[in-house]
Design a protein that fits this description.
Helix content is 41%, strand content 14%. It contains 14 helices and twelve strands. The strands form three sheets. The chain has a seven-stranded mixed sheet with strand order 2-8-7-6-5-3-4, sandwiched between helices. Helix 5 crosses helix 9. It is globular and about 60 Å long.
Length: 399
């Protein structure tokens, strides 16, 4: 008999809403034809990996040396950890060495391992809402509780609200910038204010919450926006990320944790997170793709097609009269459901589905009254969805 927890989880229609909508899309496409279904459900990057990555794959595949596919240290190959340290040194503006890095099975195991290394049953992790839906499961899996804190109307951080949520049970705060589902990039001022709040809390309480920065979309930004570094602002910060989005390698499951070298307990955290990674059953990150990303992590990528598709989708939503905040990065728009539905995003998503539009309800991301549109799809899907979006809104108006 399966556990009561999973019985309840599987019965919850909002659990794994993204994947459920994706599976529904396959059924609808088989029934009506793929070109008649407008599937915006899954954030699956559709750019091909850059040439440098494909060349590295070919090179690594030719390696027939003894032990090429064997175990390595749980934290990863030394050369790969050094390459990721070089990457973070450039992005964070501080010198990072390989001892700060653990190679992981995508960003998911990086976050889960970091949380397991920090949390005891009954403790809490604070997250700005809306947030990536899986955070709830990662925290609960280790006996903790996720504490959502609403963002401001434009999805920027409400630092005062985060400060109010901090207490003796708080072990960490997770931020995701560019954000899934909103595309929001938290500004340097917001990051500085948040870090100061964590410092003040730590000095007062004697316990400094970790700041976990989830950054798989870091490179995908628009309109001259940049993702500010956190390491110079707060010692107890860590980066968790992957190459799923920036190099279009979601199925290869390769990512890493990087601890701030200034953290006074860096060695203990890295040791604990490495052990947590083992306990979770990962053992080590995939050997093959550790070698691939060590050779190709800095491959240039042209994200302009995502920018074009963002603009096309905004035009579609403007035409339909659907409200949204302009995304600054990633490849999502978090749009507001029509006023007639109040905060019932599930009901509006059902209306969209009747018009063969597939989107994820906002409540799955911790915010009712919105829905997420993933625009990493063919341009024709976006352009051809215009009439369907307009018809869905007109249906609402006739009710």
């Amino acid at each position: 008999m399966i556990s009561e927890y999973f019985k309840n989880l599987l019965a919850d229609k909002n659990a794994s809403a993204i994947r459920k909508m994706f599976e529904e899309g396959k059924i609808l496409k088989a029934k009506y034809g793929a070109d008649k279904v407008y599937d915006f459900s899954l954030g699956n990057p559709d750019l091909d990996p850059p040439k440098e990555v494909l060349d590295a794959i070919k090179e690594v595949a030719q390696d027939q040396s003894h032990g090429a596919h064997g175990y390595m240290s749980n934290a990863g190959y030394d050369e790969c950890r050094a390459a990721m340290a070089q990457k973070e040194s450039q992005e964070q503006g501080v010198q990072v060495d390989s001892s700060c890095v653990i190679m992981t099975v995508g960003a998911a195991s990086a976050i889960s391992s970091a949380i397991k290394a920090l949390i005891m049953p009954g403790e809490e992790v604070v997250v700005p809402s809306p947030f990536f839906a899986e955070y709830t499961h990662y925290v609960k899996n280790h006996g903790g509780a996720l504490v959502p804190v609403p963002t401001k109307k434009d999805f920027s951080l409400d630092v005062d609200a985060i400060k109010a949520a901090l207490n003796s049970k708080t072990v960490a705060v997770i931020i995701n910038s560019p954000n899934n589902p909103t595309g929001k990039v938290y500004s340097a001022g917001e990051i500085k204010a948040l870090c100061q709040a964590l410092k003040d809390f730590g000095k007062k309480s004697g316990r400094f919450p970790y700041l976990i920065c989830d950054e798989p979309y870091r490179a995908i930004v628009y309109d001259g926006v940049e993702v500010p570094p956190v390491f110079p602002e707060y010692e107890y910060s860590i980066i968790v990320t992957s190459f799923a989005k920036n190099l279009s390698l979601p199925g290869e499951r390769i990512g890493y944790i990087c601890a701030n070298p200034a953290n006074p307990e860096k060695s203990d955290f890295i040791a604990a997170a490495t052990m947590a990674f083992r306990i979770l059953g990962c053992v080590n990150a995939p050997a093959f793709f550790q070698k691939v990303v060590a050779k190709s992590w800095n491959a240039p990528v042209d994200y302009s097609s995502y920018l074009k598709r963002r603009n096309l989708l905004m035009d579609v939503l403007d035409k339909a009269g659907i409200e949204y905040e302009r995304p600054q990065g990633a490849f999502y728009i978090f749009a507001k459901v029509p006023a007639a539905f109040g905060d019932d995003d599930s009901a509006f998503v059902e209306v969209l589905e009747r018009h063969l539009i597939l989107c994820a309800p906002g409540r799955g991301f911790g915010m009712k009254g919105y829905f997420r549109i993933a625009y990493c799809v063919d341009e024709k899907t976006i352009v051809n969805s215009r009439d369907a979006f307009c018809a869905a809104v007109k249906d609402v108006e006739r009710q």
